[in-house]
Structure formats: structure tokens, C-alpha cells
Design a protein that fits this description.
The complex is a heterodimer of chains A (349) and B (275). Chain A is α/β, with parallel strands linked by helices. Chain A folds into 2 domains: 10-21 and 30-266, Rossmann fold (3-Layer(aba) Sandwich); 291-349, no CATH class. Chain A is built from 11 helices and 12 strands. In chain A, strands 6-7-8-3-9-10-12-11 form an 8-stranded mixed sheet, with helices on both faces. In chain A, strands 2-1-4-5 form a 4-stranded antiparallel sheet. In chain A, a hairpin with a 2-residue loop joins strand 11 and strand 12 (319-321). Chain A is globular. Chain B is α/β, with parallel strands linked by helices and 275 residues long. In chain B, the strands form 2 sheets. In chain B, strands 4-5-7-6 form a 4-stranded antiparallel sheet. In chain B, strands 1-2-3 form a 3-stranded parallel sheet. In chain B, helix 5 packs across helix 7 and helix 7 packs parallel to helix 8. The chains are: A alpha/beta (349), B alpha/beta (275). Chains A and B meet through helix 7, helix 8, helix 9 and helix 10 of A and helix 7, helix 8, helix 9, helix 10 and helix 11 of B.
Chain lengths: 349, 275
């Protein structure tokens, strides 16, 4: 635990992932989609960082890039101080034992032709974690019981299970290699409301039991608040605001976070509140190489927001906001009110 | 269309003529539907159903409008003007330009607006919206819900909103029907349902969702409903279908089906606990 204090489990530094699009007819240019455009954050041992944002904001790509399921365009990902991006094949395999992922769709992320036992045993075989067949089988049973399934489920196929049970199988598979970090990519969004609670509780129990660290990617703000210690709000490939969960939900500071939170319907007819309804849709991530990504939809924008790079600036301990209107800190380092303090660049260019 | 054929509208308090949609052939359905004042159906997953709703091969102008808005009699220019007018009503910016665009050029929120515009084009008395915002992001969902509320009061139409999101219900509905395994288990005005849910399933459902309006520290663990929704095929015995997952179930609850009855004024539930 003491070493966790000195060094975060995962450090992401200025991560970028650009995708080249098919060029338009007769055009020589290939437009690039800036799916992740300079994302930086730390993840401490044992905490849950929620990553929220609307579809297309790059939250899943961030998760996949951290596991090197996508090769990043640039940036660093340090796991326990080692740069993942420079690891060779062998070391990468060793690392994957410590970083696992649970996917969104429990219907397509399990091989329909394999039994549950062979799905859960596969990581054990790949990483050589069981000496023989009986040891492997014992471990599979143990894993299934950990996630609330039983020995009787071993010989069955994924289609015989409900969505919630399938997600449990996916979680058991991720746990098989005893990872330290699990990237949960929308793990409950495909599930029924009543089953969602079961999986959320399971994830929390497992975290307590094994001291797991989660990067929890979701678009459901209520779920993220419930499970996360800290939350990062993403918009068009950038982190707009990052803060402890209670702080973010009590005092959202970035105009986008405020609009996002006020848009969540609350299941209580008595709850009355100010609703900020944003105009327009999420802009395309293709253009806009400069200025605030949220400029076009922002109700509080200033003319200089269109050209100034926004940097994540602390407004209180652990609470960083990338908005010059709210923080008074401009991207070029000048401050309106003074006292910028230590500002972390959201992206350099 | 097959969804429609299983829907039975009988003795409708809306003043629609008693149409038993069960007996109508799909080919004649559109005509009857218009006569009955039923609007087109709003489907929830735009990506999957837009082929049925928005024809990919045509711009949003006349072929679509004539086909789907029920205004087959309108000539080209009239249909076009009407299309532009309807796009304006659902707040699509620069409708005279958008009307020439193809569905793939529109964003998800815009497409849902177009589908709503189509639903409204024939002045329906009833619009059935099946999860109209489930495939959308929260900020876009807020826009669409606001639009639906605005149009509802503007045109005085009834909306049957089908959703799994309890938050969406409080934002839009006045009355709620809760269904479980093909049965109606509770029916109440919105305030009554959220203030005092009667059926154990509704109670469990309301407790199992994380809420951003409550302090996170107070609910470290969510209350969960054990088990899963039963399969609805094969031999179904007469019993309370929620009984296997219910904390209050007694042996006799497995023997007969509870009937929906009024427990409080205007608040009905199908549960043996209120016998």
C-alpha cells in the first residue's frame, strides 16, 4: 500500500489515437478522426475511475488503447511505472495478466461454440497458469463461484444464459489471470435494470475482495456516480473535467459537465431543477484542430475560446477543469485572475 | 407491422372508433390507422429500424412523405412544402435545405426528430413511442423529451410511451403502467407510483437503480432483485409470475394468477398482498 502512494498504478500521459478516414472521392486528403486527443490521467491502486461522455467522445477508444487493443498514435501509458507502449511481445503478454477488460456486449464477447468452462479456462491456458487439467478445472469452478455461478454451469454454452449471467462469465474470464486493473467498457449498459444492480454489486464485491482497480467506462451518469471514486468527463477526445465523484456531482464546473448532469432524468416526480438543454449535436471529431472542443454548443463561450487551447486547471484539490471561462486560465499560460498554479496541459501541439 | 397486429385497441377512452387492430390486414392497416387517428409508430433503435421508417435510398422529401405521412393525395410541391413545414415544427435547423438530405447525413437525434415529424404529419390522436430515446445520448435525449412534451401540448395528442427508464417516465408521463412477464402488474398516476409503489416488483425496481439525486455515500450497495425475468414460452402455469423472485411470496401465490384490482383510488396492482 505504501508503494501505491508513491506511484499510481496507471499513468496515462497525453494519449492520442487518430483514425484515418476513407478519403472523399477525387480528394487526395485523408481526413483524420481525432478519437482520443491528448488524454492524461492517473489511476491509483484500488480506486475506480469513471470515464463518462456521449457516444463518439473517445471513452471506449481510450480504454482499448490502454490495453493496446488499438495502437496509439502518440502518448505514454505507464503501468506501475513501465511504459506499456515500448513493451515487446513477451512482456506485453506478461502485462496482459495484470490488465484485463470486460466488454459491453455480453452477447458478442463470448464465443458461442465454446462451453463456459473452456471460455473461462482459456486465459489460464494462454498464460500457463494451471499445471494440469484438474487444477485448471478447480480454478474454473472457483472463478464461477466467485461471480455467483456454479459448477453445474460449466458444460453449458453462452446462449443458455441470460444477459446478466453472460456478463458474469465475462467477468470470471477477466478474473482468471488475477489482474490488478480491469477496464470495464460499458459492462452494464446492455442489461435489464433489475439485473444491472446485480452486476454492479458483484463488481463492487470483487473490488473489495481482490483489491482491484477499475477504469469504468459508461455513458450512464447515475451508474458511474454510484461505483466511482473519481470521475472524468470526456468530450470529443478530450477530458473536460476530472474530480472526485462526490465533488463532480455536487459542484460540476465545466459547462459541459453541468449540461450533461442536468440532462439526466431523475426518477422522482417531485424533483424540480434547472435544466440546461444544449443546442445541436456532438460536433464531428474530424475537424477542429484548435480551440475548445465544446465551443459550438457552449452557452458561456467567449470569442477567444474558439482559438485558445483549453488546459486542465485545478479549481480545488483534485478537481481539474479545462475551461478558460470557469478557471480564468488561458491556454497560452496567461491568467485573467492570476494564480494559475500548476496547470497540466490537456494537449500540446 | 407485426407488432401492430398484436395490439388490440378496444373501447378506447380517447374517442377513437372501436378498432380491433387485430383483425386488420397489414396492407389495409395504414388506411385504417389514419382513419382511427393512430400515428405511425416511433421505433427506438433507429439504426436497426430506419430502413422501415426512413428510406435510405431517398432524400427526406416527397417519396418518404407521401408514403409515410399518409398524405398520398398531395401532389409533389404540396408534399414538399408540408415536409418542410413539419421539419420546422420539430426544430430541425434550415428545413428547406435538410429536406433534400438522405437519412445517413443526419445525426441520431435529427433522425428521431424526422421520425417524430412523420408521425405528426397526419395529425394523429395517438402516437406510440417505443423507447424513443434509448439509443440516444442524455443531452440529445433531453432535447427529444422536451420536443415530445412541447408537441403533445401543442397538438393535444395522446402519447403511449414505452420505456425501461424510470427517469424518462417522470419527465413525460402522467400515468404509468408497469408490466412484468407479459402481464400488467401495476397502474397508477406518476406521483402515486413513485411515492408509494405497491407491487414488490415495482418497489424492487425503484430501489435497484442508482440515483444521482441522492448522496452516493448513503447507498453503497444497490438493492437487487434476485433472479431473472422468466422465459415466456412453453407451458405457463397459473401463478404470480413474479413469485419466484419475490421476497413476500407464499406457497399459495404459486397456485393462481393475481388480478389487477384497485388498491387505492386510481392505483391498481396485481398482487396477492393486497387481497
Amino acid at each position: 500500500m505504501t508503494e501505491a502512494r508513491t506511484q499510481p498504478l496507471l499513468q496515462v500521459r497525453n494519449l492520442k489515437k487518430y483514425f484515418a478516414m476513407r478519403s472523399a472521392m477525387f480528394s487526395r486528403e485523408r481526413p483524420t478522426v481525432r478519437a482520443v486527443d491528448g488524454v492524461s490521467f492517473d489511476l491509483e491502486q484500488g480506486e475506480t475511475l469513471g470515464l463518462v461522455g456521449e457516444s463518439g467522445c473517445g471513452k471506449s477508444t481510450t480504454g482499448r488503447t490502454i490495453l493496446r487493443l488499438e495502437e496509439p498514435t502518440s502518448g505514454e501509458v505507464l503501468f506501475e511505472g513501465r511504459d506499456i507502449m515500448r513493451l515487446g511481445r513477451h512482456h506485453m503478454r506478461v502485462l496482459r495478466r495484470q490488465v484485463q477488460i470486460v466488454f459491453q456486449d455480453p452477447y458478442s464477447s463470448l464465443d458461442p461454440r465454446k462451453t463456459v468452462a473452456s471460455i473461462v479456462a482459456e486465459p489460464l491456458i494462454v498464460h500457463g497458469l494451471a499445471q494440469n487439467k484438474s487444477e485448471r478445472e478447480d480454478r474454473v469452478v472457483e472463478l464461477l463461484e466467485t461471480v455467483g455461478l456454479s459448477r453445474g454451469h460449466m458444460r453449458r454454452y453462452p446462449h443458455e444464459f441470460s444477459g446478466g449471467q453472460r456478463q458474469r462469465i465475462g467477468i470470471a474470464r477477466a478474473l482468471a489471470v488475477r489482474p490488478k486493473l480491469i477496464v470495464c467498457d460499458e459492462p452494464v449498459s446492455a442489461l435489464d435494470v433489475s439485473v444491472q444492480a446485480q452486476v454492479i454489486n458483484l463488481l463492487q464485491d470483487l473490488q473489495e475482495k481482490f483489491g482491484l482497480t477499475y477504469l469504468f467506462i459508461a455513458h450512464d451518469l447515475s451508474v458511474v456516480e454510484h461505483i466511482s471514486t473519481r470521475v472524468a468527463v470526456m468530450y470529443l477526445g478530450r477530458i473536460m473535467e476530472i474530480a472526485p465523484a462526490d465533488e463532480l456531482y455536487a459542484r460540476p464546473t465545466h459547462p459541459y459537465s453541468q449540461a450533461l448532469l442536468s440532462a439526466v432524468p431523475i426518477p422522482d416526480p417531485k424533483a424540480k431543477r434547472e435544466r440546461i438543454i444544449l443546442k445541436g449535436d456532438v460536433a464531428s471529431a474530424v475537424a477542429e484542430p484548435q480551440g475548445c472542443r465544446f465551443y459550438h454548443r457552449c452557452p458561456f463561450r467567449e470569442p477567444s475560446c474558439a482559438t485558445n487551447e483549453q488546459v486542465l486547471t485545478p479549481v480545488s484539490p483534485g478537481h481539474l477543469v479545462a475551461c478558460q471561462v470557469r478557471t480564468g486560465v488561458h491556454g497560452d499560460g496567461t491568467t485573467a485572475a492570476g494564480g494559475a498554479g500548476a496547470s497540466v496541459p490537456a494537449g500540446d501541439r | 407491422m407485426d407488432k401492430f397486429t398484436t395490439l388490440t385497441v378496444t373501447a378506447c377512452p380517447l374517442g377513437l372508433s372501436n378498432v380491433d387492430t387485430d383483425r386488420i390486414l397489414p396492407a389495409r392497416f395504414l388506411k385504417v390507422k389514419r382513419a382511427a387517428g393512430l400515428g405511425p409508430y416511433l421505433f427506438h433503435d433507429l439504426r436497426r429500424t430506419e430502413n422501415g421508417q426512413l428510406d435510405q435510398a431517398f432524400p427526406l422529401n416527397q417519396p418518404q412523405w407521401r408514403k409515410l405521412s399518409g398524405f398520398a393525395i398531395l401532389g409533389g410541391i404540396k408534399a414538399m412544402n408540408r415536409a418542410i413545414e413539419m421539419l420546422g415544427i420539430v426544430h430541425i435547423p434550415s428545413p428547406e435545405r435538410r429536406v433534400h438530405e438522405y437519412p445517413h447525413q443526419l445525426s441520431g437525434g435529427m433522425r428521431q426528430r424526422v421520425v417524430i415529424a412523420m408521425a405528426l404529419a397526419c395529425n394523429p390522436k395517438l402516437v406510440i413511442a417505443d423507447e424513443p430515446t434509448t439509443a440516444l445520448d442524455v443531452t440529445i435525449q433531453a432535447q427529444i423529451l422536451e420536443l415530445l412534451n412541447e408537441l403533445k401540448s401543442k397538438f393535444g395528442m395522446a402519447v403511449l410511451l414505452i420505456t425501461h427508464d424510470l427517469g424518462v417516465i417522470t419527465e413525460t408521463a402522467q400515468r404509468v403502467i408497469v408490466m412484468y412477464a407479459a402481464n400488467v402488474i401495476e397502474e397508477a398516476p406518476v406521483e402515486a407510483l413513485f411515492a408509494e409503489p405497491l407491487h414488490p416488483y415495482t418497489q424492487g425496481l425503484l430501489r435497484s437503480i442508482p440515483r444521482i439525486d441522492r448522496d452516493a455515500g448513503k447507498q453503497r450497495r444497490l438493492t437487487q432483485i434476485p433472479g431473472t425475468v422468466p422465459a415466456l414460452h412453453g407451458d405457463l402455469r397459473a401463478c404470480c409470475r413474479f413469485a419466484p423472485r419475490c421476497g413476500f411470496a407464499k406457497p399459495r401465490h404459486f397456485e393462481s394468477t393475481p388480478l389487477l384490482k384497485e388498491v387505492r383510488p386510481g392505483h391498481k396492482a396485481a398482487c396477492f398482498l393486497y387481497d
